Amino acid sequence: MTAVPRRRMVPAYLATGGRSRPGTAGFERLTVLCTTGTAPSPESPELEAEHRRLWELLQPGALTVVEAAAHLRLPVSATVFLAADLVEAGCLRARAPIPRAQQTDRTIVERLLVGLRALR
């Protein structure tokens, strides 16, 4: 039998402080997070070690909420709370997900191709 690696399970109510809604509205699973350069203050009583882990994870660049949750091995809902706390503290920036690109109208592409062929 192959041993399954144990992963640390943190109950969501511990990471969220027992709250049912994050303080900042508008977070989705694909919300993009990045640091502002301001580190979370260790003296701040409302910011836990999980907040620091999320901030350190985002130091090299931006990640979506769902990617950060996977790296932290936390539920997405708990990661939303952590990110919202850090945004309120001024340590993170959150922006809406990049919208999907619209498909190009085929007639425009065909007219462009005809125009390019006429230049020969």
TrEMBL record:
PANTHER family: DUF742 DOMAIN-CONTAINING PROTEIN. This is DUF742 domain-containing protein. It comes from Kitasatospora aburaviensis. The lineage of its organism: Bacteria, Bacillati, Actinomycetota, Actinomycetes, Kitasatosporales.
